[in-house]
Amino acid sequence: MSTKTRIVILGGGYAGIESAKILNKKYRKDKDVEITLIDRNPYHTLMTELHEVAGHRTEPEAVQVSFKRIFSGTRVRVVVDEIEGIDFETKVLKSEDSEYHYDYLVLSTGGHPEFFGIEGIQQNSFTLWSLEDAIRIREHVELMFRAAAKEPNEQRRRKHLTFAVAGAGFTGIELVGELIERSETLCRKYHIDKDEVRIMVIEAQDRILPILSDKPQRKARNYMEKHGVEILLNAPIVKGDGEGTYTLKDGRTIDADTFVWTCGIQGSEFTAKIGLTKGRVSNDTCSIATPEGIHGMAGCHFDEEDRDIVGERGRILVNDNMQSVDFPNVFLAGDMIWYLHEEKVVPQIVENALQSAEVAAHNIIAEISKQDKKTYKPNYHGFMVSIGGRYGVASVMGMNLYGFFAMALKHFINLHYLWGLAGFNACWGYLQEEFFQIKNKRSILGGHASAKIPAYWALPARLWLGLMWVIEGVNKIGEGWFNFELGSKSGWMFSAGVSQAGVKSAAASGGTATAAADATAAASEAWEEGADAVAQAADTATAGADATAAASEAWDAAGDAAAQAGDAVSSAAADATTAASEAWDTATDTVADVASGGFEPWGWDLEAPIFAWNSPLVTWFRETFMDGLFALLPYQFFQVMIVGTEVAIGLALMAGLLTWPAAVVSIGMCVVFTLSGMFAWNQLWFIFIAIVMMGGAGHAAGLDHWVMPWLKDRWNSTKLAQRTFLYDGEPIVKKKRK
């Protein structure tokens, strides 16, 4: 017999995943506790987003998060199997081929649609309670448009283009929103007038979205009616037949080849297989179950041997600690529980699943460690309903939101959940599906985030950017950055008097600050004398032939001034000499400019630095980072590092090798140069082109076409990537050798 404490979680939905993650966090270093999660699928399904798949807004992969992605870096063991029964006395779960022993059990098998025993409904309707359901609806809807496009009979054509949704709760209304948008696309594709399409909501109660307040209900209804949706209230359905005719209680009939049932949830068929006390049982004791569970049978076929009649199923009664009232080591969570809070049964929503799972996991930990248990006190923060990809309504913490803001909040909540589920990996996948790869502008950003340019259009820009970086590096070599006998060529990036690993920066090395100041003053005098000479040249230019002599004298005067400046500079430090020389160059350049007619930019001086060297931002950056961290590096190493980085960036971009990292480093270098006060406005294109490079430019005529997939596989197989979720796609889990 095993001496370890065995915790088994049955069901990989919202509740099962939450309890597994909490237990793993507690026992990740405790080898005396085993955590096993069992599910019939190898992935977790985002049930709240199934309507997007059904309406062809996103792909099926968008609502699948594999258990490998969630648990590959944890101690949770995932088993894909179908449990057929549980022996609670011997603590064993049984499948067709295996048995799983437990000390503590968490049941979170969810719920399945409730058909209320209405004649012909399950047999002739679609449901939206699994990924398979969503795919069936998705394919069937397009099939109906294709059939209608070539149907000459008007009555049959009308029936093909009628889409009836029974139930005005979250699932029904969200599906209707998707059908509104999907029908627009299919009408264009199959050349059908959109006025021929009939979308209906059929609700037995007197209002839609009853869990929301009046204003969000009204907003949702107005939006749907504006888009041509018919809403029938107080219209309970009493019968459905195999010919696509559905009868209402008042005798009216609806003819539709597409009828989706979203009117209720009950415990899954698994609850009929276990002998736990139920708080409530289904009204229908003759539901049909297939290997997929209980669902609408329209659009699918299962042989008789794959069909079972489910008996009494329902929601399992639990106590305040989320324990079965029959067995204290059996805990339950999610849609399958029957629990009264403030005399009302808890709703079958995601927040209830997560919160009940948290209590169940906490109390298992309390049982093991002999601590006090927690009582379940649900706290719901609000509700959000999307009506297509561009509109929604929400009621959150007493605040109502509509349209863009409601949808933005829904996306934010989804990202928050996914971050806790699988971190960056899951969130990045969600953003890809919802925004960056969305089709037909079906998001709150329209098609702006999904517009793409082929990588080959970026090829010339990639080559040019790479060439410019190589030239930048080579030019620095020509300027003496590798000739260390000349002293530091990078001292201008540091404050006056700061040492680069013991060698003072140019502004104070080899002499005194006074000498540098004298040199600067001499340069200033040279500037002034040169300017005076120019003025004299301009005054005498009107004298005709004497203008040439005057200009010559001006040049001589400027030369004399330069000689004086040179004498002063020669007594200063080598770097101070450089500063004076640069000042002289500026003065003579100005003389030449003015002598040739002068030039000043009429508007924005693109050659001016973005931030001046003595600006507050540059001063802060220089004193905080350059004078502190980088001053520890010898100037020889620092200069080689800068030149080497520039050349490496250029070569990588030109070869299309590691283009994304090279682009990131390119942007980083530009930011450093900008904050050092030397990056001009006309150099900003370096940053913008580098951003374009991050969109996969290296895959067109570049080595990234082969290198990046290879690196991705290697990275995805590392424990670090799996623990941090910092990877794209699926993890590669290596099987342990026995």
TrEMBL record:
Chain ranges passing through the membrane: 629-652, 658-677, 684-703
Keywords: FAD, Flavoprotein, Membrane, NAD, Oxidoreductase, Transmembrane, Transmembrane helix
Keyword GTP-binding (UniProt): no
One Pfam family per UniProt: Pyr_redox_2
Catalyzed reactions: a quinone + NADH + H(+) = a quinol + NAD(+)
Protein family according to the UniProt entry: Belongs to the NADH dehydrogenase family.
Protein name: NADH:ubiquinone reductase (non-electrogenic)
Gene source species: Spirochaeta lutea
